[in-house]
Design brief:
Elements: H1 13-27, H2 34-41, H3 45-51, H4 55-76, H5 82-94, H6 99-112, H7 119-145, H8 154-175, H9 179-195
Helix pairs in contact: 1-2, 1-6, 2-3, 4-7, 5-7, 5-9, 6-8, 7-8, 8-9
Organism: Halobacterium jilantaiense
Pfam family, one: TetR_C_6
DNA-binding region: 33-52
């Protein structure tokens, strides 16, 4: 990848990243071309190839961009109580989605399916997954530190939440059923409710996933 503005990204970086998103929504992953992305971004195909040698390079950069976007969104909620922050995360992942969101989720699942065969995608997707896991674990850790959640293993709870979220999203993409809504309600009613502390002097948390004995 060639240089661009001061931070090493193209001057049209934001437009290009938006173009990748729009092209994935419109065309999916399998049929995606650099020309599709250029058209959606309002830039020339030659500009894309100046900064990104291949479509793979551009998609890896886009996946990294999703991490930066996730960090910005997380910062918007960092002052909220942990239960509310976790509730919004689960809602945003599972029920606060429109047709465009699910079209993007479908294209992303197509891309993820390449990971076992493509090291560049695999390595970047591993970084994306690590970011999401750390983000959810930080929410839980903040809740424990603030006395809003019981004493649990934040990483174990994060893995449980993400496994449920990811599985529900795959079901929605593959079979178009109501699994996201069902899993959303179950996470709030059984996982989040079980994490939350009661008033001071509440009984010890019952045994469950991620509990430190």
């Amino acid at each position: 990848m060639n240089g661009g503005d001061d931070d090493g990204k193209p001057e049209a970086h934001g437009a290009v990243m938006d173009g990748v998103y729009d092209a994935l929504v419109a065309d999916g992953f399998a049929d995606l071309t650099m020309q599709d992305i250029a058209d959606e971004a309002g830039v020339s195909k030659s500009l894309l190839h100046y900064h990104y040698d291949t479509k793979q390079d551009l998609l890896v950069a886009f996946l990294d961009h999703l991490i930066e976007r996730g960090k910005a969104r997380a910062a918007e909620h960092e002052d909220e109580p942990a239960p509310e922050h976790l509730r919004k995360f689960v809602g945003g992942a599972l029920v606060d989605n429109d047709d465009e969101d699910w079209a993007f989720a479908t294209a992303l699942l197509e891309l993820q399916a390449q990971a076992p065969y493509d090291a560049a995608y695999r390595d970047q997707l591993a970084r994306n997954e690590a970011f999401m896991r750390d983000h959810v674990a930080d929410i839980v850790r903040d809740g424990v530190d603030a006395g809003e959640f019981r004493d649990v293993d934040p990483d174990a709870v994060a893995r449980l939440v993400l496994a449920a979220v990811d599985g529900a999203r795959v079901d929605r993409v593959v079979v178009d059923d109501d699994t996201p809504e069902v899993v959303h309600d179950a996470l709030l009613d059984h996982v989040l409710a079980d994490l939350e502390t009661d008033e001071p002097g509440a009984p010890e948390r019952r045994d469950g996933p991620g509990v430190e004995q």
